[in-house]
Design goal:
Elements (H helix, E strand, L loop, with lengths): L7 H20 L8 H7 L2 H44 L3 H11 L4 H19 L10 H20 L3 H33 L4 H56 L32
Helix pairs in contact: 3-7, 3-8, 4-5, 5-6, 5-8, 6-8, 7-8
């Protein structure tokens, strides 16, 4: 069979395309840097703004994680010390004196201080105002509930920010990727030639924004879950302690053989001493 011979028309069409591709490859420097720095240099104002938003989210989440993490560790240590002292104290007056001298640095001491102050206030002044109406037990109960609400609100501080960052950071990064891919494809289309190496570089750079969004969101979500669980545990312990404290203030004794919040410090119900009935409250 005779060897096939390319037609002149094919040569005319193929030669300009090959020449254009060769010129495009030659125009691209061999050592052109492709990466994060090149992506920043090629980004427009919107791309840089999205990157700045992700950076601010990351700084805010990590600062909040460090503050709440260190504060929670210190709070747990102070709580263990106070509960150990409380369940080994001889009377509520000794606890009140300790709180007056050293102050309040954790939720359990805060709750005890306000409950004891409410007891003494009602014993001295009675129901002089509307918020003090009712018996001493009613007034102490309202005070304890108010303190529990305050502590719960304080523990929730910052969690909304972590939840917001964890939920929105991936979408901010995805929007940056879409915007970067769009501009990369527009630039390739305007150049008239799109070899694989020219497409893969800009698109790969645009995907960096998605990775950054995930890198910002994952620590925020993990920290939110950890802090939420710690808050639930602490609120449960505070509720148990408040119930036992109310029993002390009302009757002067603990629940017989019941497990109490003080056992978290290594105590049992049988080891807790019976306290005298507080002044101004019927035993």
């Amino acid at each position: 069979m005779p060897n096939p011979v390319m037609s002149p028309a094919t040569d005319v069409v193929a030669t300009p395309v090959a020449t254009a591709a060769a010129q495009a490859l030659a125009a691209t420097p061999v050592d052109a840097g492709i990466g994060f720095g090149h992506f920043i240099g090629q980004s427009d104002a919107l791309g840089k703004a999205l990157l700045a938003v992700l950076l601010l989210m990351s700084v805010a989440s990590w600062a909040l994680i460090l503050v709440k993490g260190i504060g929670g560790a210190l709070q747990r240590r102070h709580s263990r010390r106070f509960l150990d002292f409380f369940w080994n104290a001889r009377s509520l007056e000794a606890v009140q004196g300790e709180l007056h001298i050293h102050g309040v640095r954790e939720p359990f001491g805060h709750l005890a201080a306000h409950a004891l102050q409410a007891r003494d206030h009602h014993a001295r002044h009675g129901a002089a105002r509307l918020e003090e109406a009712g018996s001493a037990q009613d007034f102490i109960t309202r005070t304890i509930r108010k303190v529990l609400d305050e502590e719960g609100t304080r523990l929730e501080n910052g969690l909304t920010l972590l939840a917001t960052i964890g939920a929105t950071a991936p979408f901010v990064g995805l929007f940056g990727t879409v915007w970067g891919v769009y501009h990369a494809l527009v630039a390739i289309g305007m150049s008239g030639a799109g070899p694989l190496d020219q497409v893969a570089g800009p698109v790969g750079e645009a995907l960096i924004m998605t990775g950054l969004g995930l890198a910002v969101a994952i620590p925020a979500v993990m920290a939110y879950n950890a802090f939420s669980r710690a808050n639930r545990v602490l609120n449960g312990r505070l509720d148990a302690y408040a119930f036992e404290l109310m029993t002390f203030l009302s009757t002067g004794s603990t629940l017989g053989g019941a497990q109490t919040a003080g056992q978290t410090a290594g105590q049992t119900g049988a080891e807790v001493r019976t306290m005298p009935a507080p002044r101004g409250v019927a035993a």
